[in-house]
Structure formats: C-alpha cells, structure tokens
Amino acid sequence: MAQQDWNRQIIIALDYANITEMEHFLNRLDGRLAYVKVGMELFYAAGLEVIYRLKERGLNVFLDLKVHDIPNTAKGAVRSLAQLGVDMINVHAAGGIQMMQAAREGLEQGTKAGSPRPLLIGVTMLTSTSQSMMNEQLAIPGTVEETVIQYARLVKQAGLDGVVASPLEVPQLKERIGREFVTVTPGIRPAGSDKGDQTRVATPAEAFALGSDYIVIGRAVTAAPDPLAAWEQILQSLHSVTAKGGASQ
Ligand SMILES: O=C(O)c1cc(=O)[nH]c(=O)n1[C@@H]1O[C@H](COP(=O)(O)O)[C@@H](O)[C@H]1O
C-alpha cells in the first residue's frame, strides 16, 4: 500500500481544551491529516463550532462522545449527532443490544437525505482497562480478549458497523466476528513512548500489521514537542507494513 493511503486510516485525537489550540495544531500539520477525532474535552468546551470548522477544512470527523444511556435517550442522542454530518459516531457496547439497536435507528433518522450514513461503532473494553482492573473492579471474569469478543458479538447483532478495541484483539475480532467488521484501535504508542494511562497498547506499525482498519493517535502527536516531526516519523515507521484490515481497504 502506498504511503499516502495510511493517511486515511490514521485518526488524530484532537484532545484540546479549546478551538484556538486545535487550530494551532491543524495549521502546523498543514493539510497532511485526513481524519480527526473530536472527544468530550473539546466538544464540551467548544461545541458545534468545532465540527463546522473541521468540515470546512475538508476533514473526516469521528465524533467520540461514547453514548451510553437507556435506549430511547441513546436513540435521540445519536439522531442529534448524525444531523451534524460527521463520519463516525460511537456508543458503549455495555449499553446492550436494545440500546445499540435504538442508536442505530437514531442514526438512520438523523442522517441527512443524500448524505452518506456515518459509521456507528461500539466501544468494547476501554484500552486503559487491564485484565486485573476488569476482573477485580468491574467484576467481569475471564480475559479482556474474551470480553471484547463477547461485546463485539452484541455490536454486530445490533447492526452496528464495528468496534473500538485495542489492536491486540484485532486478529481475533477479524477471525471470529468477520473481516468486514470495522476495527478502530486507540492505545497507539510509537516505539519507546510512555504508555501513560493506556494498558493495552501497540505501535502504529504493529496495529496495522495486526489488521486494524483505523488507528487512533492522540498525545504521541498532539502533545509532541514537534507534532509535525512526530507525524512524519509515524508515517515513516509504516513504510514496510502490509495492511491486513478488511473493512477500510
Ligand atoms: O473511543 C475512543 O476513541 C477511545 C476508546 C478507548 O478504548 N481508548 C481510547 O483511548 N479512546 C480515545 O482515544 C484517544 C487516545 O489518546 P492517546 O492515548 O493520547 O493516544 C483518546 O481520545 C481516548 O478518548
């Protein structure tokens, strides 16, 4: 795969406190990005204006608000988010099949006529969750991988497009849930960088080699002393990788 194609599969998490910081970062990257993620920090601070600005720049937008509520509320929330014309929306798989089916209905209702339907993605186990945390605090027995697969089954049954998981679970997801089932993987740490609050991590090259369709990278680029150099280094590290992802090719 040619280098420029990776660009479409790398989602940069714009975890900034305001629009000024976001614009400063995007100007430094100067048109190199194709896909960005807006999460709770930026959206709760700056709201819809963020989405409009990113769309004006021609970027694909993953609006990561991790909807998790009773089915009727989740449906309305996703309907409202779909009306914004973003490209990807997520909900927590822990909300269960009925909640995700309702979210899916809200997605259809909110998508503007003639516009492509945003991808609807179920968050499985957060990449900050370790097996001991899951077993002891959440009282879920077994391995994280088995729980991720179980959640993914619910996501698929509810008719969603794919899951957020760590890259480490992607081979099993592709084998057991399906190659076309989209995998979006945060927990990305370039070689030698600090894990921070993440526990299930992989490098960008490992994540794509494992089959991730999209990787999500935040602080390794956005908080780097030289974000442009960090971005270029990540692309460089992908030179010899052969993509396995089935859904985004
Ligand atoms: O849904 C997400 O995007 C998400 C799910 C998950 O399990 N883990 C996770 O880190 N994320 C998000 O992915 C981004 C990762 O950021 P960094 O750890 O700075 O690369 C953050 O914006 C998180 O909110």
Automatic annotation (TrEMBL):
Keywords: Decarboxylase, Lyase, Pyrimidine biosynthesis. GO terms for cellular component: cytosol. Its EC number is 4.1.1.23. GO terms for molecular function: orotidine-5'-phosphate decarboxylase activity. Homodimer. NCBIfam families: PRK00230.1 (NF001273), pyrF (TIGR01740). This is Orotidine 5'-phosphate decarboxylase. The gene is pyrF. It is an enzyme of class 4 (lyase). One of its GO terms (biological process) is 'de novo' UMP biosynthetic process. Residues 9-234 form the Orotidine 5'-phosphate decarboxylase domain. Pfam families: OMPdecase. Gene3D superfamilies: Aldolase class I. Belongs to the OMP decarboxylase family. Type 1 subfamily. Catalyzes the decarboxylation of orotidine 5'-monophosphate (OMP) to uridine 5'-monophosphate (UMP). Pathway: Pyrimidine metabolism; UMP biosynthesis via de novo pathway; UMP from orotate: step 2/2. The active site is at residues 64, 66, 69. InterPro entries: Aldolase_TIM (IPR013785), OMPdecase (IPR014732), OMPdecase_AS (IPR018089), OMPdecase_bac (IPR047596), OMPdeCOase_dom (IPR001754), RibuloseP-bd_barrel (IPR011060).
